[in-house]
Design a protein that fits this description.
The protein is mainly beta. It has 2 helices and 20 strands. The longest helix is centred in the N-terminal third of the chain and has 18 residues. The chain starts with a helix and ends in a 7-residue tail after the last helix.
Length: 282
């Protein structure tokens, strides 16, 4: 009996730092509506679980830079949290797993920037906003599914990440600048009907991308959008599209238009692009 108790104590002592959290592990502040915002984490547990209440008040936000450069390997964010603020988990290089709540509304600027071990993220249906550079350089992140309610995605949101495929949400009208800049593993990008503008350098350097089908709603493809996509051979444009503006907001000379420079566009796709107004290089 004593031996069994001793073994249980040893197991608890050796495993507790991996999962146990105390209220004192979290530095907190207060939201304007009577909730808690997590300001920092001082615990030793690598597999962190944020409680849904602290000091008898609901946890509602993960604050700016709260876990920045931390050593955690996983994080569970409780239901009730609505905002993850700028830089909250930036530079958490060991972080491989994130559980987001169904109440989350926004992910802030650079919130998961440089989380190089982060391999999968399930974005909840409640999410409406992803900030600038939110998942930049998440080199292990291979897939993402956008929720239907999202309507704001910041520039460079997935820049230099490990994405292999992406299906854009139906409600989005503009693909932001540098959204998938230098995503070298990206092989498939579905651009849905409704998208009118592809931002500057949105798919720049996506060397694994071989084909793009543009929607009938497309009206502008900005500078460098598909520049240096060295495997891109095929672009499909619906017959209903009569013209596309291949420049920035200000007029540019034809020689400056480099939306598809550095690709390996087939002759048929070159003719397709010329039909809708493209005069730049390939």
């Amino acid at each position: 009996m004593k031996k069994s108790i001793f073994i249980l104590i040893i197991i608890y002592i050796t495993s507790a730092p991996l999962w146990a959290q105390k209220e004192s592990d979290f530095r907190v502040g207060f939201t304007s509506d009577g909730g808690i915002v997590i300001r920092g984490y001082t615990g030793s547990a690598l597999q962190a679980v944020i409680p849904d209440t602290l000091q008898y008040m609901p946890v509602k936000e993960i604050g700016r830079d709260a876990f920045r450069s931390g050593k955690i390997t996983s994080i569970v964010i409780p239901e009730g949290v609505t905002h993850i603020r700028d830089g909250a988990f930036a530079d958490c290089r060991e972080l491989s797993s994130v559980t987001l709540p169904g109440t989350l509304i926004s992910i802030g600027e650079a919130a998961f920037d440089n989380c190089i071990s982060l391999s999968a993220v399930t974005l909840p249906d409640s999410l409406t906003t992803i900030g600038v550079l939110a998942f930049r350089n998440c080199a292990s992140l291979s897939t993402v599914k956008f929720p239907g309610n999202i309507y704001v995605i910041g520039g460079g949101a997935f820049q230099e990440s490990g994405l292999t495929s992406v299906s854009w949400p139906a409600g989005i009208r503009n693909i932001p600048p540098r959204a998938f800049y230098n995503c070298k593993n990206l092989q498939s990008a579905v651009i849905p009907e409704g998208v009118a503008v592809i931002g500057s350098f949105a798919f720049y350097g996506c060397s694994g991308l071989t084909a793009i089908a543009l929607p009938g709603t497309i009206s502008r493809i900005n500078e460098g959008s598909f520049n240096s996509c060295s495997s891109l051979t095929s672009v499909t444009v619906p017959a209903s599209v009569r013209s596309i503006n291949f420049s920035e907001q200000e007029p540019e000379t034809a020689s400056d238009v480099k939306s598809f420079a550095g690709s390996k566009m087939s002759s048929a796709s070159q003719r397709t692009l010329q039909r809708v107004g493209y005069t730049g290089g390939y």
